[in-house]
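Name: Outer membrane protein assembly factor BamA
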Amino acid sequence: MYRKVLAALFLMFVSVFALSAQSDEWYWNQPISKIDFNGLKNVKKSDLNGVVSSYIDSPFTDEVYNDILDRLYSLEFFEDITPYAKHASSDKSDVLLVFEVVERPTIKDINFLGNHKIRNGELRETIKNKTSDIYIESKVLIDERLIRNFYLKKGYNASYVTHSIEETPEGIIINFEISEGSSSVIREIQFSGNTIVSSRALKRKLALKEVGLFKDGAYQPSTMEQDKQTIIKYYQEHGYADANILDVKIDTTFNEEKQRDELTVLFVIQEGAQYTYSGLRISGNEVFSEKELLKNKKLKEGQIYNGTKFQEDLQNIQSVYHENGYMMNEFYTVPVKDSDRHEISYDITIKEHSRSHIENIIVKGNTKTKDFVIKREIPIEPGDTFSNDKIINGMRNLMNLRYFSSIVPEAKQGTEENLVDLIFSVEEQSTSSVQFGLTFSGATEQAGSALPISLFAKLENSNLFGEGRTIAAATTIATGEQSIDFSYSQNWIGKYPIAFHSAISFSHAKTASLVNFWSPNLELVQNRYYMSYHDWSTTFSTGLSRRWTPDYAVITLAGGLSTSLQRNVFDESVYVPVETTVSSYANRWGVSNSVYGSLSIDNRDLNYDPTKGWFLNERVTWYGLIPNLEKEFFMRSDTKLEGYLKLIDLPVTENWSFKLVLAGYTGLSTIIPVQNGINTKNALYIDGLINGRGWSEAYSDATGLAMLSNRLELRIPIVPGIVGIDGFWDAAAVTPKLQDMKNLGIDDFYYSFGPGIRFLIPQLPLHLLFAWRYRVEDGKPKFADQPFNFVLSFNIVNY
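Structure predicted for Outer membrane protein assembly factor BamA:
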């Protein structure tokens, strides 16, 4: 009602304005050129732009106005919003929409009263509200529940939490008033009726634990219910279909010394007999045959019954229908037990309905990212048949954007029986990053005193204005090398998944090159003496790529062009470089161009931190486009193959599983020179940072026109999306020519292995490695004189 009154007042105000301007209802259907806010104090305008910017250039209608107002009120930042409109330009052809807002007060302080067992710091980490946040009553009530749940987790089952507020000119003071009560801990867990499974084995399955040196033993009633189901599930996985928890008896003793209740918990178990599975019978299926429905079944006839595998088989049957758009089917499952033969089977009756179609696609939780940026990544539209595969592909596409920390899809009944609303609830994460650190600059031994260490810094916003655009600036500073780079990219052009990128870089390097030297006996020496020179260059690159997203992979076809201006500064009257490519740009600006094309097929579940799937990429680059102007003409080919296999996925807690992922990579790079050879800096080499990690000094010995790089990693995510540990093994080799690859032996490779720490945050793509290095001589490993090396690398994501 309040909003309707506001809407009526707004229309009256605009009408009066329109009459005074002698332009009757001028605002209707005029484009909105700008939306502005007056009265902002604590709320950032940038937080609001992501909400309203999608309406810019839209015709001003009553529906658009109400939609904007609803969105602004849903943020709960404002107590009052008063809108008005005026002409945005002198020709009065567009609308400037202004919202006069009254902000809610901010939180000045948060106090905790009555907490004697739990520290204030722990409670502050538990709640969501912080000082200086906008005060929203509903969020404070959520914090009440969070504090209460925290106490329950610690075993304070009689705890109670309320809050009160104090209004001051500086803001709101929130006082959480806590009644802790006494805590309850589990002194002992016992079982009766278990003859098949030992008490020790059952204890290991429970989330509840006995109090001990490293366990708080907190008693939580909700966890008790979970543990009862865990016990039943464990028995049913081993064939005991009749297993049940008859009772849970709790004996309580108050410990005066520790002022807490100590519990003895007794689970009374009925095991029953062990059953053999004798199959299932399906009726009512007309769309799919029984063979099609059971093609992925895991539980076979004659096996010991496993309740978990049977449920997976039932879900697979339902998935066959869901993947083909049959969302409204009904499934009725009836167990049939033969108590004499100890066999169990199931009768499944399916009531089929017509296919479901998407009525609406709704996005929730996005305050910065615009709706169209999200919806365009979902390969399904209103009117399409519902498809699980397409939703999964959409999830993968959205996660690969790295704009969101959480994406939850949900299907709800639409306005009619076979219509479905598809809802994506997202939780945004920061897309602005500051990266800095140390890395290897690529300096060589010939470069003289230049240290092979560089300072690296990068600023990036990967979701500029919430429109899916990326802008970045980076710099590298070292004693022998300096560079600065600017780049821009976007993943879509209009309604098409065509990515565009462009970049410009400026660099300077003090490097070295072999020079011709005539000995006193007039012998030409070309492999011993070096000169140092300054290499100045500017490079501009641009490219386009087109993506296709069939169910099995993401296919990307790309191409681009790069143009460089280069100048080498040295004394030509003293030095004559061996490499003509160095002398060609002596004290003058020269141009070099390259053009590339690539094709990739990406089957990974995620491109940033995959756990399964594979990736294949072939890129061919041609250097040199203008005869008589450019000095280098050659072709480079880069072939990359990645594979990922999840070896272990064991649930440990409700929110964390122990995972072990095997990752493999093979890369083959080759260069085919056309004329005059190539510059040394364009040759292939083991850098010790990406290829042959740890072998940074191998540059001088391992440079050529063909390189094979292999690596294996065992990855363990410790905190998903944050940090993980891994073990790695690398093997890399370089040969002078591609033809020499066929003669490679194990003694030609540079090997390294060791542990590593991998940061999984997109804004901090660091990989810290401890590398032990060795070569193979006479069939035996020979470690380097200094076998251990610390390597600071980066998580390189291949696309």
